[in-house]
Write a structure and sequence with these properties.
- The chain is mainly α and 350 residues long.
- The chain has 15 helices and no strands.
- It has one domain.
- 73% of the residues lie in helices and 0% in strands.
- It is globular and about 55 Å long.
Length: 350
């Protein structure tokens, strides 16, 4: 009988595997090495039976760090530009409605899922929110995370390579991937950013804001950078560490999942996600010129990945991170508020 390692040992093992995968991807100059490398290596180990483990407090800390990092991309011009994003928000709402309906059909027919499970597996975003809401509504607590995690996995794996193959972007040499010698904030700036991270998280949690771990710190840090209280960006090694932790946590979600039990839901998730990505690519290709937006930024704003993951890619390719983060926050908020309510209206007896 194999002895289960202590939780702290399993978490450290996950981080070691993730760091190794990220370092190898970095050495091979592959796209988004620190996140993709850690995610792929930890996922492979999880399926192979290696006792990897997620540790959500650490993941949440890195999400807070990412929130502070996102805040550094907000400028005074952001608020004036927000008024010009109305068309993009309408495009995003239409995208969510269409892709959710198509995905629901795919999960019901190809994945053989019950209606409740299929519905909460279908939305293009809000992994944690949809899993919790789906369990509360009576959905299968095993299949919803598999479907949602597979979606994020496929998107994070596909988008960087799409930019390399089609967008002609050298992701391997982007600053978001390489640990460069960057300035370190002084003691006062470190104190202010720490206060932004901790205070923003607690305030957002107290207010019940959706995805408060990243939204609260992002708002306060954005205010600090906008007003000039802080001018130095976060160090590169800290950004790389956040990618390793987030990638490892995604990969560790697959631990204990038997391939035969997740085969059909995973295939359905891959098909549904592929459709989502095609719709996002086509929408961004045609809508970006009309809205006077960067096509890469609009694609990342529509892409059905997580806020943290899409923001990391945005940072790496030097596109409009504030716009992308805002669009994902709007989508997550709509999904969190409208999703469960719409479910009750469509299937009241359930």
């Amino acid at each position: 009988m194999v002895t289960e390692p202590r939780p702290i040992v399993a978490v450290l093992l996950s981080l070691v595997i993730g760091t190794t995968g990220g370092a190898l991807f970095y050495y091979w100059t592959l796209p988004l090495p620190w996140m993709l490398g850690s995610m792929i290596f930890v996922s492979a180990c999880a399926f192979a039976g290696v006792p990897v483990r997620r540790y959500m407090p650490l993941r949440n800390i890195m999400v807070v760090v990412l929130g502070v990092l996102l805040g550094s991309f907000f400028t005074v011009g952001f608020f004036s530009e927000l008024l010009t994003w109305g068309g993009a928000i309408l495009i995003m709402i239409g995208y969510v409605v269409v892709t959710t309906a198509v995905s629901l059909f795919v999960f019901r027919t190809l994945g053989y899922m019950a209606t409740t499970t299929a519905y909460f597996s279908s939305t293009p975003g809000g992994l944690g929110i949809r899993v919790l809401a789906g369990e509360e509504a009576g959905g299968d607590h095993r299949l919803i995370p598999v479907a949602q995690a597979t979606r994020v996995f496929v998107v994070v794996l596909t988008i960087p390579f799409y930019f390399v193959a089609i967008g002609h972007i050298d992701l391997g040499n982007s600053p978001g991937f390489i640990i460069t010698a960057t300035p370190i904030p002084n003691n006062l700036e470190i104190l202010i950013l720490t206060a932004c991270g901790i205070g923003g998280y607690r305030i957002a949690k107290w207010c019940g804001l959706t995805f408060g771990q990243i939204l609260g710190p992002m708002i306060l840090a954005g205010a600090a950078y906008t007003t000039g209280l802080v001018t130095t960006p976060l160090p590169g090694p800290l950004v790389a560490a956040s990618q390793i932790v987030i990638g490892s946590m995604i990969g560790a979600q697959f631990r204990g999942v038997q391939p035969r039990t997740m085969f059909r839901p995973a295939i359905a998730a891959i098909v549904a996600t592929s459709i989502m990505l095609v719709v996002a690519v086509v929408s961004s290709r045609f809508a970006a010129p009309l809205l006077d937006l960067d096509e890469k930024a609009l694609l990342l704003a529509l892409a059905p990945g997580g806020l943290a993951e899409m923001s990391l890619i945005a940072i790496s390719i030097k596109t409009d991170t504030a716009f992308i983060a805002t669009m994902h926050l709007v989508r997550i908020t709509l999904i969190a508020i409208v999703g469960p309510t719409l479910y009750q209206l469509l299937w009241p007896r359930r």
